[in-house]
């Protein structure tokens, strides 16, 4: 199946080459350079990825949507969202897309917490992620063991139905919400997330919540 | 009258604003409804400053002790509403910027594709 791997990238030059080379065997690599000011773009081009360039930084959600639309246009059958900072493991892509290949799911989410060996920092896990997961499950009526894990796969059907309008980090909640609203079949698969830094803190979590709620008014 | 200077300053200020409103309305940069809404708002300011007792009357009607309190409550409400509207407007503009940036990104890719 024609698989596209979308890597949104903002000043991730340090990891980009390694990440692109690691995912290359699994599909067509599309790097969305979200207005980077370092040499991310040159690195991506020399690593022979397709590079889409945002002239201004618009946020991870915006970059993913650009990648999704490109993949849709180029006839992708499966799209994988993958982080540019080396957090995700390319070797887990086959496991992530397997439920789509078997026709068991339209969307597959990676979950840090389905595995016994999870590397999430203690405070991040219990102060930020667990409350966020609870909140997500209660609010959206889903049953997921993880939230805001950027490693996911979408079938073409899901790709056609899910339009990301949240430019910032709230896109992760938006995708879950739209999966639910469109009645798409979803599945979780255990994945490993390695931490280079803490990532989204508590303030970031609140901003995601605010963006998501305010988004309701402009996109009813 | 104890605060006559203030009344005069406010009146001049309101006159200036109404004059500018009228100009904007003539230039067609204001809709009739907007023009009337702003005009009424500023005329109300005039009334409040020249006849402060009217606010007390209104305040009693709403069950609030003093006219000044009512004015402060209303002003706060209006400000909250305007901030909210501004927030939505900025959010919408941000999304429009994203659309343009996305359009350009996809178009650039087309060009590269054609060249190669």
TrEMBL record, chain A:
It comes from Candidatus Komeilibacteria bacterium RIFCSPLOWO2_01_FULL_45_10. CDD domains: DPM_DPG-synthase_like. Transmembrane segments: none annotated. InterPro entries: Glyco_trans_2-like (IPR001173), Glycosyltransferase_2 (IPR050256), Nucleotide-diphossugar_trans (IPR029044). This is Glycosyltransferase 2-like domain-containing protein. Pfam families: Glycos_transf_2 (PF00535). Residues 5-160 form the Glycosyltransferase 2-like domain. SUPFAM superfamilies: Nucleotide-diphospho-sugar transferases (SSF53448). Gene3D superfamilies: Spore Coat Polysaccharide Biosynthesis Protein SpsA, Chain A.
